[in-house]
């Protein structure tokens, strides 16, 4: 699976995990902030926990350090970089 | 006395935001599911994570709280009754633990899985940090919430409370109750609910919310009395009803309508018949479970119905058990039978938990 396909898959997974029923994968820009009401997707702290669960279940990634989590969960690009480097499945 | 000033109900009928009950909405697959509105007042961010029981509870409550706010009426507490509340999410959370071998678990189902999720979400959405409690006494959960509200206003006569009863149809609970025989095994539509004479009822769900306080002026109705009991025999239930009426009706005062929680379950008919026997023979009897379905807090639907029904409006034929000629189809209004001023509501849940509520309606 190339990076473009991986991004598409991740966007779909985020929509399903977070029940973002009014959003389609193509509505999420790769550099769009995940958090923040104005430009971002408007996710909140509970969503960040859901995303950590997503990374664990779908890619076998365990994030234990909150500081590391803050660097990873910025936008689709940062998540994909981390997934590519650290995935175990 | 506890007075109802505002009320709203999300139910399987056309009850929200305005009630239109002449036409009976039909059940599907032996279930009466709520008609969910668009929830324009709920933030999308919160809505996408909400279980149905939270959506309907908050959806019915928020318009009342906003209306109260517009009238400068502060809400001094949130008192909710629910049989099961977030049980569906509890089951999903437990299932996650099994499926993922006690590994990392999604927090969403956990956050939504507690019985007090409805009251706490309403509190969070309205930033109300005052008295907040959820009563979970099965089929008497709403009545206990009501008793709590009544005691609160006795202690704090100037306070106003949000009182509610809410439950959803959950797959797990439905299956357990179905196996126990509480729901019809045969396919049945709600317009035939009382005709079969077989065990079981149709499952339902709903959220009914009320703003209550001790101020009579401008109230829709006053709750004059509530009584609850546990019994598996009709005799003590009828005996308690006699005591209840003796204690709450003035000399010479009459009930004008008996709003019965009869649910089509032949095993529960003796309880309702025992109550009917001690009431006046000509007293009109109306039923509501074909509209709401059976669920632990269905009596909240009955209280909503009795509170909002216009004084001059005839009851639709599909509600009437006694006091009207039978009509084919059961959807035509019978002339002449109205809700009246004094309404007695009797409900039993599973033939073990019983409640009476006496309501005096206003006509303005």
In short:
Helices cover 55% and strands 0% of the residues of chain A. Chain A is mostly helical and 89 residues long. Chain A is globular, with a radius of gyration of 12 Å.
Characterise the protein shown here:
The complex is a heterodimer of chains A (89) and B (364). Chain A has helices at residues 3-18, 45-59, 66-72, 76-86. By secondary structure, chain A is mostly helical. The longest helix of chain A is centred in the first third of the chain and has 16 residues, at 3-18. Chain A is globular and about 30 Å long. Chain B is α/β, with parallel strands linked by helices. Chain B has two domains: 2-213, Thiolase/Chalcone synthase (Peroxisomal Thiolase, Chain A, domain 1), CATH 3.40.47; 221-361, Thiolase/Chalcone synthase (Peroxisomal Thiolase, Chain A, domain 1, 3-Layer(aba) Sandwich). Chain B has eleven helices and 15 strands. In chain B, strands 4-3-5-7-1-8-15-14-9-10-12 form an eleven-stranded mixed β-sheet, with helices on both faces. The A-B interface holds A 17-22, 42, 44, 46, 49-50, 52-53, 56-57, 62 and B 44-45, 48-49, 100, 103-108, 111.
- Structural class call of chain A reads mainly alpha
Beta strand count of chain B: 15
**Most extensive interface:** A-B, 16 and 12 residues
Q: Give the amount of beta strand of chain B, in percent.
A: 15-25%
The level-1 CATH class of the largest domain in chain B: Alpha Beta
Strand line-up across the major sheet of chain B: 4-3-5-7-1-8-15-14-9-10-12
Largest sheet of chain A: none
- Cα gyration radius of chain B (Å): 20 Å
């Amino acid at each position: 699976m190339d990076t473009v396909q991986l991004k598409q898959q991740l966007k779909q997974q985020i929509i399903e995990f977070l029940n973002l029923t009014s959003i389609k994968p193509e509505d999420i820009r790769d550099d769009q902030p995940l958090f923040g009401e104005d430009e971002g997707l408007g996710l909140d702290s509970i969503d960040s926990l859901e995303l950590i669960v997503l990374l664990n279940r779908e890619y076998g990634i365990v994030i234990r350090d909150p500081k590391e989590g803050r660097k990873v969960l910025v936008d689709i690009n940062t998540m994909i970089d981390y997934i590519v480097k650290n995935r175990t499945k | 006395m506890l007075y109802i000033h505002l009320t709203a109900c999300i139910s399987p009928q056309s009850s929200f935001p305005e009630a239109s009950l002449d036409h009976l909405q039909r059940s599907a697959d032996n279930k009466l599911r709520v008609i969910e509105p668009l929830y324009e007042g709920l933030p999308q961010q919160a809505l996408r994570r909400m279980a149905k029981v939270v959506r309907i509870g908050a959806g019915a409550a928020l318009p009342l709280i906003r209306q109260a706010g517009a009238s400068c009426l502060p809400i001094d507490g949130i008192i909710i009754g629910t049989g099961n509340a977030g049980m569906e999410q509890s089951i999903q959370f437990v299932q996650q633990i099994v499926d993922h071998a006690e590994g990392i678990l999604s927090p969403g189902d956990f956050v939504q899985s507690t019985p007090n999720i409805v009251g706490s979400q309403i509190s969070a959405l309205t930033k109300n940090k005052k008295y907040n409690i959820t009563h979970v006494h099965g089929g008497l959960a709403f009545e206990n919430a009501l008793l709590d509200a009544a005691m609160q206003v006795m202690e704090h006569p100037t306070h106003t409370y949000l009182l509610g009863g809410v439950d959803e149809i959950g797959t797990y609970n439905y299956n357990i109750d179905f196996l126990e025989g509480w729901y019809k095994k045969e396919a049945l539509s709600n317009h035939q609910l009382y005709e079969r004479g077989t065990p079981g009822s149709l499952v339902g769900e709903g959220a009914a919310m009320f703003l209550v306080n001790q101020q009579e002026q401008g109230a829709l109705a006053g709750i004059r009395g509530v009584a609850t009991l546990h019994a598996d025999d009709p005799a003590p239930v009828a005996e308690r009803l006699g005591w209840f009426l003796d204690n709450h009706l003035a000399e010479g005062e009459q009930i004008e309508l008996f709003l019965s929680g009869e649910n089509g379950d032949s095993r529960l008919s003796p309880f309702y018949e025992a109550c009917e026997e001690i009431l006046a023979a000509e007293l009109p009897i109306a039923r509501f479970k074909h509209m709401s379905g059976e669920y632990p807090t269905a009596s909240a639907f009955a209280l909503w119905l009795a509170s909002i029904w216009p004084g001059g409006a005839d009851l639709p034929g599909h509600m009437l058990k006694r006091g009207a000629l039978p009509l084919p189809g059961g959807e035509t209004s019978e002339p002449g039978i109205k809700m009246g001023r004094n309404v007695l509501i009797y409900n039993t849940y599973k033939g073990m938990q019983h409640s009476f509520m006496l309501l005096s309606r206003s006509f303005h």
